[in-house]
Structures are given as structure tokens and as C-alpha cells.
């Protein structure tokens, strides 16, 4: 046999042992600690990516299944995990980082302070390569969730501030993503320590940093006191959001994705006029497509995109708007009727969008919207019928799980009743169309779910209608 064949066979054998490590530990912990694990750790630095990935899975399994005491796990694995973060194999190093982030929650606090924190602080030094400093950001973010507020303020925030001001945009973006974790521990003290740095990041020169910061602010809104929301965050949105919409860069998708969080988080500090302006911006985003643009070239953005790329970006924007529609309904409950009516027209447009995933998002939130807006029930019946008749099963995947609840809701609000044969006939016919489409598509799980939803039919349709149309369908 050739040397190459021996090497391949040896590697496969090592990977096999690695995958079975949790089982071996269950059978004989002492033997594993004394013989198998040291051998594994000796060969890993020179092992293949696959070998390292197998080791990562094994260590995770040991931690999740509590196959060792915390002390034993720390002594046996922690130092090796920390050393593996320096692996030249970047794929392996990244996976070992994920292992560390998975297992920190099971490590004793004193170990986190004495073993893990110093590593994170060391990796944050400006002399370290950018990927290493990014690693530091991720570790610090996870440690912040496990440390007391006092320790976060004393041991973590000084390093975080340094990373927020790092010369690399990649590092600043990575640190921005972890700031909500610090805010989770600091609570209402967040603004005292992080607010100014967060504002700088939102205005950063690099798009990737601004994207991460806009997302971070959305996640941190519950951690800010009302006065900070009103005097700092709300003015920030008035300045930044219109600029984002003008440029139509990657930030547009982030804004559309988190717009609902901003709406709910800032609702109580807005005036009626400010709410109206905020809603109008959402309406504008939800209508973006290549046909709504007057010029092929955006005068506010120097980067020229081809039509397909632009169409995809604007479609994703509408998709995020569809996801946030229920939140915007909550936001708009106390606004003037004409604005609320405009919001319904947006729902109608999104439910007819050319992109099926947009229609699916609206379908998935349909029942939630129905609960929020009883006044819309008559109009919602038409949209319900339209979605039921959609020929794309992806759209029906969003609607079918709530069909029974929607039927009960419409019936309960007297949109149609069970005391007249003709009442609800159009809904019944749409249900039959939906059933046929799913049957023809051989989507049996969703088809079954729809048929199970038909259990409420006797409660919402006239008995004669049920007997003439639903019973033959179910018997067939």
C-alpha cells in the first residue's frame, strides 16, 4: 500500500474515533482523559479541516450532554480550544471559536475571568491581525451576557470602546453587532457608557459599519430611557433614515428589516405628526420597485447597479416591509383614519406582489393583522380569498396554518354567518380552489394541514352548504 493510502486510512480512523468520542466517554471517562483525548489534541494542530470539524462536533456533544463535570471539561478541553483559535486553518479556527461561544455559558464565572477574558483582551490589541480582533469582538459580546454589570463596566467596556474606534471597518462592524449583548447586561445604564460610540458608528464612513450599527440601535431601544429615546434616538432616525432611502444602498434592506422594531420602540415618544411621517416612510419603502424610480441612475449614490441587482434589492426591501406589516399596524392604531386606510392599501399591494416570498410574508401575518384590526374584516375577506387562490404553494405555506383561526375570526365578526346558505360562499369556493391546488401540487403535508383546518367549517358555514360541498370533498 502506498504512503498516501496509509495516510488517508489513518486520517479516516482518527475521524471515526473523534465522532465516537462522546460514546467512548460514556463507557470509560478515565481512559478517554488519560489516553484518547491527549492523542487527539496532539494531532489536531496538524490535522485536516475535516478532522478539526469532527473534533469541534465531539466537544460540543460532550458539553451539551454533560458527559463530564464542569471542572473536568475545563481542565481537559478549554486550553486546547483557546489554542485552536490561533490555527492557520481559518475554517478550523472559526469553528473552534463557535465552539468556545457555545460552551462559555457552562464554564464557571471565575474561569471566564481568569482564562477566557485575558485571551479576548489580548486579541483586541491593534497589533493583532484583523480576523483576530474580530474574534475578540465576538468573545467579548458573549462574555458580557455572563458577567455582572460591574464587571462589564470595569473589564469589558474599555476594550469595547477601543474596538469601536478600530482602524478596520470590519472590526468596528463586528463590535457593533455585539453591543446589544452589553446593553442586555447594563440595562438602563447603557446610554451612559455606549450611546456616544453608537452614534459615531451609525454615522461611520463604511457601509458595513453603519448597517451593523443601525441593527444594533434597533435591538437596544428597550435599554434606553424615554428621555434618551426622545432627545437622541428619534432625532437620529430623522436625520439618518431619509439619507438611507435616498442612497438605496445595502442599508436600505437593514432599515426595512428593522423598521418595525424602531416603530414599536419609539412609538411612545413620538408626536402624532412624527408618527405620520414615520408611517409615510414605511409606505414609501413598501412601494419601491424599478418602475417607481424616475431615473436609472441614483443621483445620491455613486455606485451604479445593473437593473437585475437593483430589482433584487428593491424586492428584498418589499419583503422586509411585508415582514414588518403587523408591527406597523400596531404602530398606527391611534393615527388618523386616512393613514390607516393607506396602510390597508399597502397590504393589498403586498398581497399581490409579483414576488411570491413577499406574498408569503403577508399571508403568514394575515391572522395577526386580523386580530389587530377588526374594522378591516370585511375588506380582509377579499384579500383572504385572493391568497387562498394563489397557485404558488410557498404562499400557501404562510396562510394554511392559520386558515381555521381566520375562518373563525371572520365568522365571529359577522363578515359571513352560518345562518344563510349563500353567506361565505365565495370563501368556501376559494377554499376548494386552495385544496385542489395543494392536491395537484402533491404537497401532502400542507394539504393535510388544510383538511385538518376544515374542522371549523360546521361552525362558520350554513349546514346545507357544508353538506352539499364540504362533505363530498372530505369523503373523497
From TrEMBL:
One of its GO terms (molecular function) is protein phosphatase regulator activity. Keywords: Repeat. The keyword Isomerase does not apply. This is Condensin complex subunit 1 C-terminal domain-containing protein. PROSITE patterns: HEAT_REPEAT. GO terms for cellular component: cytosol; protein serine/threonine phosphatase complex. Pfam families: HEAT (PF02985). HEAT repeats lie at residues 156-194, 194-232. PANTHER family: PROTEIN PHOSPHATASE 4 REGULATORY SUBUNIT 4 PPP4R4 (PTHR21467), SERINE_THREONINE-PROTEIN PHOSPHATASE 4 REGULATORY SUBUNIT 4 (PTHR21467:SF0).
Amino acid at each position: 500500500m502506498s504512503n498516501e493510502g496509509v495516510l488517508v486510512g489513518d486520517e479516516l480512523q482518527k475521524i471515526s474515533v473523534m465522532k465516537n468520542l462522546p460514546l467512548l466517554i460514556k463507557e470509560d471517562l478515565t481512559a478517554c482523559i488519560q489516553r484518547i483525548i491527549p492523542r487527539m489534541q496532539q494531532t489536531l494542530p496538524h490535522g485536516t479541516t475535516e478532522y478539526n470539524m469532527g473534533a469541534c462536533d465531539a466537544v460540543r456533544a460532550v458539553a451539551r450532554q454533560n458527559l463530564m463535570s464542569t471542572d473536568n471539561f475545563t481542565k481537559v478541553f478549554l486550553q486546547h480550544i483557546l489554542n485552536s483559535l490561533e490555527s492557520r486553518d481559518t475554517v478550523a479556527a472559526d469553528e473552534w471559536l463557535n465552539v468556545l461561544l457555545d460552551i462559555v455559558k457552562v464554564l464557571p464565572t471565575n474561569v471566564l475571568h481568569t482564562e477566557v477574558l485575558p485571551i479576548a483582551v489580548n486579541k483586541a490589541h491593534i497589533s493583532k491581525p484583523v480576523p483576530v480582533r474580530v474574534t475578540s469582538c465576538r468573545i467579548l459580546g458573549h462574555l458580557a451576557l455572563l458577567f455582572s454589570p460591574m464587571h462589564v463596566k470595569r473589564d469589558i467596556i474599555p476594550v469595547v470602546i477601543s474596538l469601536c474606534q478600530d482602524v478596520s471597518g470590519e472590526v468596528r462592524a463586528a463590535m457593533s453587532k455585539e453591543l446589544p449583548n452589553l446593553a442586555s447586561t447594563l440595562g438602563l445604564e447603557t446610554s451612559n457608557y455606549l450611546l456616544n460610540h453608537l452614534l459615531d458608528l451609525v454615522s461611520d464612513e463604511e457601509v458595513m459599519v453603519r448597517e451593523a450599527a443601525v441593527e444594533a440601535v434597533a435591538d437596544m431601544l428597550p435599554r434606553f430611557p424615554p428621555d434618551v429615546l426622545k432627545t437622541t434616538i428619534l432625532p437620529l432616525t430623522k436625520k439618518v433614515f431619509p439619507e438611507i432611502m435616498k442612497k438605496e444602498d445595502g442599508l436600505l434592506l437593514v432599515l426595512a428589516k428593522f423598521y418595525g422594531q424602531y416603530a414599536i420602540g419609539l412609538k411612545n415618544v413620538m408626536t402624532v405628526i412624527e408618527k405620520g411621517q414615520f408611517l409615510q416612510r414605511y409606505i414609501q419603502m413598501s412601494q419601491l420597485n424599478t418602475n417607481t424610480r424616475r431615473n436609472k441612475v441614483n443621483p445620491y449614490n455613486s455606485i451604479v447597479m445593473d437593473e437585475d441587482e437593483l430589482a433584487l434589492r428593491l424586492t428584498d426591501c418589499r419583503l422586509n416591509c411585508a415582514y414588518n406589516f403587523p408591527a406597523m399596524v400596531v404602530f398606527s392604531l391611534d393615527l388618523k383614519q386616512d393613514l390607516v386606510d393607506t396602510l390597508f392599501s399597502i397590504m393589498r399591494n403586498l398581497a399581490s406582489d409579483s414576488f411570491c416570498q413577499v406574498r408569503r410574508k403577508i399571508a403568514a401575518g394575515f391572522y395577526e393583522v386580523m386580530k389587530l384590526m377588526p374594522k378591516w374584516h370585511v375588506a380582509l375577506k377579499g384579500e383572504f380569498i385572493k391568497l387562498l387562490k394563489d397557485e404558488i404553494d410557498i404562499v400557501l405555506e404562510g396562510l394554511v396554518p392559520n386558515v381555521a383561526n381566520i375562518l373563525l375570526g371572520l365568522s365571529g365578526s359577522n363578515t359571513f354567518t352560518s345562518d344563510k346558505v349563500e353567506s361565505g360562499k365565495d370563501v368556501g369556493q376559494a377554499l376548494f380552489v386552495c385544496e385542489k391546488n395543494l392536491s395537484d401540487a402533491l404537497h401532502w403535508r400542507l394539504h393535510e394541514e388544510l383538511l385538518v383546518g376544515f374542522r371549523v367549517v360546521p361552525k362558520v358555514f350554513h349546514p346545507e352548504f357544508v353538506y352539499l360541498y364540504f362533505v363530498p370533498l372530505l369523503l373523497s
